[in-house]
Amino acid sequence: MTETEAALKALMLLGLDGDAPAYRLLLSQLGGRLRVYFERRMRDAPGDVEDLVQETLMAVHTRRATYDRAQPFTPWAFALARYKLIDHWRRRKVRMTLPIDDYVEVLAAYAPEPGSAMDLDRALETLPERQRKLVRDVKIEGLSLAQAGERAGVSEGAAKVALHRALKSLGERMRGRADG
Question: What stretches pass through the bilayer (predicted)?
Answer without folding.
Answer: none
